[in-house]
Amino acid sequence: MSRILFHRHAPLAVVAALFLLPLALGNFGIGLMNDIGIGAMVALGLVMLTGVGGVTSFGQAAFVGIAAYSTAWLTAAQGLSPWLGLLFALATTGGAALVIGMLTLRLGSHYLPISTIAWGLSVPLVLSNIEALGSHTGMSNIVPIHIGGYSLASSGAMYYLIWGTLGLVYLFSSNLLRSRQGRAMRSLRGGNSLLASVGADGYHLRLKLFVYSALVAGLAGWLYAHNSRYVSPSTFDVHGSINYLLMAVVGGLLQLPGALIGSAIVILLRNTLQDVLPLLSSRGTQLEVIVFSLLFLLLLHRARAGVCGFALKLAAKYRRAPAPVAPPPRGDTQPLARRSQPAAGKTILSARNVTRRFGGLVAVNDVSFDIAAGEIVGLIGPNGAGKSTMFNLLTGAIGLSSGTVSFMDRDVTKLSQRDIAQLGMARTFQHVKLRPQMSLLDNVALGAHGRTRSGLLAAGLGLDKHEERQIFLEARTQLARIGLAGREHELAGALPLGTQRLLEIARALMGDPVMLVLDEPAAGLRHGEKQELAELLKQLRRDGVTIMIVEHDMDFVMKLVDRLVVMNFGSKLMEGDPAAVRRDAGVQAAYLGGDLAEEQSDNTKQAVCLGDAA
Ligand SMILES: Nc1ncnc2c1ncn2[C@@H]1O[C@H](COP(=O)(O)OP(=O)(O)OP(=O)(O)O)[C@@H](O)[C@H]1O
């Protein structure tokens, strides 16, 4: 009870303290608070972009600069209102971010951060060469903001605008992270394949985050220009960007409050150093850079998750249960709409002459088979037979070298993984792809991405609550289905591997699939858990879901499936019911070794199982 009261009242106490703070501060203190607020806003965008989205940006100050110069030019040179300046600043910043993002966000690994340095360097260079913008000296005499007839010329008045805006941005970002879009954004680090499997588009999510963080930097730039009433290009160079990144890292890149804490620490520390270092040496400014570099190194060694991450780790030691993040269920919540399942027996998937080459290696060679609605089909074969590659081809994770695949009466040979997922094919992965730092409920809820619609704006404004309740209602049902009811708020990373595989099945079921493609779901499960999994899969078959399964535990597979497709060396060896497969000499030879002598030791256990089952 006291914890609930704390969670409810702590934000109110912070708001009240911030409201009253100017009464206790002089002009200098208020000026510092304004700098902290503006810095925190840019750092907050970086927490979203770098911490959540995994895109490291060394060019965020450039967006602050584009916005600051836009409003400076419109108000000081054109004599228009700062409020028009705000719209113009957001338009130029958002437009620039969209173009830069489209040009750079497809770059992988270290190329993307390097590209951010490129535009981080070029934007201030361009600004300093435009005469109409004051060239190297910048622009002064920027008019103050007015609200009605009230001028925000004093730093005390700007304080409330800056911190009020920061509060709104914080609220919007916090709502966004807890939404359907936010769950997908928080999963960006899990890779495009995970996102595509739930019907989400990693590139567009990254682009949205990029533009969002740039718009937040743009808001900060607008406030900066009208707070300092002066802009110059050097403020917005790469040095400035590194400063913002430092704030986010010091505070904690993974939590929104980190932006605020980091900005306060960096600005207050810089201010103190500027007072103290000149007393120690005549080269105080150079010493300041060295002190900050050392601080950065120390942080990377000792507390990579920043102050916030450190505090959370400490708090977790004393916390009794993880804090709930999902809205609690309500009696009147309607379930999500379901798709109608195809009639039992209808062919829903046809693979024809499917071939996939990796250089000179033919991983899948001219394989054809059909799958009918309501079947459980096993895809088996010795290690390296091409099963996972076949799954990747069917689900669209990789492209075919030749052949065709049709699913639900559509040729899906050239469709993306995401489009195939939207048609009703859900999958799990041989190497589990979960978000370890997200709760079980959030991981499962992610699976409904393709079935639900709420966009970024609705999420940020908190207009998605009805859909969120529907998603979490179903996520709780799916969790209960795999035996994890009551553990919704635990972290997925804390589960044993076998249970993580079950969690992947629950996530796949959230897509309301026509067909479930399971890659070694029983690996890591104990005997009793395997029996429960078999029961779950049989129940799903009764519910009309078609299942294709790769599994090495022959005993498990033979008792579960209606039909088997056997692969060996990339080709289809045979197809038939379990009894026929057990009897087949070719299959026995493949599993016993035969010509595959080098695989014998690996497969002895499987071969024995095959024999046992027979
Ligand atoms: N991306 C890739 N690049 C190159 N070769 C690959 C790639 N993916 C798979 N292969 C090769 O294709 C062959 C089939 O691999 P695949 O993983 O599909 O077999 P599998 O039957 O699933 O094996 P296992 O049961 O051990 O998982 C192997 O020789 C593998 O090394």
From TrEMBL:
<dbReference type="InterPro" id="IPR043428">
    <property type="entry name" value="LivM-like"/>
</dbReference>
<dbReference type="Pfam" id="PF00005">
    <property type="entry name" value="ABC_tran"/>
</dbReference>
<dbReference type="InterPro" id="IPR001851">
    <property type="entry name" value="ABC_transp_permease"/>
</dbReference>
<feature type="transmembrane region" description="Helical">
    <location>
        <begin position="157"/>
        <end position="177"/>
    </location>
</feature>
<keyword id="KW-0472">Membrane</keyword>
<dbReference type="Pfam" id="PF12399">
    <property type="entry name" value="BCA_ABC_TP_C"/>
</dbReference>
<feature type="transmembrane region" description="Helical">
    <location>
        <begin position="245"/>
        <end position="269"/>
    </location>
</feature>
<dbReference type="GO" id="GO:0005886">
    <property type="term" value="C:plasma membrane"/>
</dbReference>
<dbReference type="GO" id="GO:0016887">
    <property type="term" value="F:ATP hydrolysis activity"/>
</dbReference>
<keyword id="KW-0378">Hydrolase</keyword>
<dbReference type="InterPro" id="IPR003439">
    <property type="entry name" value="ABC_transporter-like_ATP-bd"/>
</dbReference>
<keyword id="KW-1003">Cell membrane</keyword>
<dbReference type="InterPro" id="IPR027417">
    <property type="entry name" value="P-loop_NTPase"/>
</dbReference>
<keyword id="KW-0812">Transmembrane</keyword>
<feature type="transmembrane region" description="Helical">
    <location>
        <begin position="86"/>
        <end position="105"/>
    </location>
</feature>
<keyword id="KW-1133">Transmembrane helix</keyword>
<dbReference type="InterPro" id="IPR003593">
    <property type="entry name" value="AAA+_ATPase"/>
</dbReference>
<protein>
    <submittedName>
        <fullName>Branched-chain amino acid ABC transporter ATP-binding protein/permease</fullName>
    </submittedName>
</protein>
<dbReference type="Pfam" id="PF02653">
    <property type="entry name" value="BPD_transp_2"/>
</dbReference>
<keyword id="KW-0067">ATP-binding</keyword>
<feature type="transmembrane region" description="Helical">
    <location>
        <begin position="117"/>
        <end position="137"/>
    </location>
</feature>
<dbReference type="GO" id="GO:0005524">
    <property type="term" value="F:ATP binding"/>
</dbReference>
<keyword id="KW-0547">Nucleotide-binding</keyword>
<keyword id="KW-0813">Transport</keyword>
<dbReference type="GO" id="GO:0015658">
    <property type="term" value="F:branched-chain amino acid transmembrane transporter activity"/>
</dbReference>
<dbReference type="InterPro" id="IPR032823">
    <property type="entry name" value="BCA_ABC_TP_C"/>
</dbReference>
<dbReference type="InterPro" id="IPR051120">
    <property type="entry name" value="ABC_AA/LPS_Transport"/>
</dbReference>
<feature type="domain" description="ABC transporter">
    <location>
        <begin position="349"/>
        <end position="594"/>
    </location>
</feature>
<feature type="transmembrane region" description="Helical">
    <location>
        <begin position="289"/>
        <end position="312"/>
    </location>
</feature>
<feature type="transmembrane region" description="Helical">
    <location>
        <begin position="209"/>
        <end position="225"/>
    </location>
</feature>
